[in-house]
Amino acid sequence: MARYDVVIYGATGFTGTYIVRQLVMSKHYEGLSFAISGRNESKLQQVLDTVSKKIGKDINATPIIIADSSDEKSMTEMAKRAKVIVNAVGPYRLYGEPVVKAAVENGASYVDISGEPAVGLFSLF
């Protein structure tokens, strides 16, 4: 089983798609192995199609990993295949913990975008 340098989880959302596009356009892209992940294979393929058209480079052979934060087994399988998981699924207070847990338990590093405006509100009260 391949262990990818980076797995982008939640690649079908606005931010996830942006991350895919920026990664592929990065000067560090060559030699980097990555996969995209999410719940819906056809939507993930659509991301690859869309990004390919926008950047003028065919990335449709990018591996797809089906995973759902409500399915622990799928989270484990995704984490086993990643050196680094970039989590673009939110809100993190609802969906983040299973991803972090899978990463820790399977030796993957974890990154998220930390955009939780509600967290700041909690500190006010």
Automatic annotation (TrEMBL):
Any one GO cellular component localisation term in the record: lipid droplet
Saccharopine dehydrogenase NADP binding domain span: 6-114
SUPFAM superfamilies in alphabetical order: NAD(P)-binding Rossmann-fold domains (SSF51735)
Pfam families: Sacchrp_dh_NADP
GO terms for biological process, alphabetical: glycolipid biosynthetic process
Superkingdom of the organism of origin: Eukaryota
Family the UniProt entry places it in: Belongs to the saccharopine dehydrogenase family.
Protein name: Sacchrp_dh_NADP domain-containing protein
Organism: Angiostrongylus costaricensis
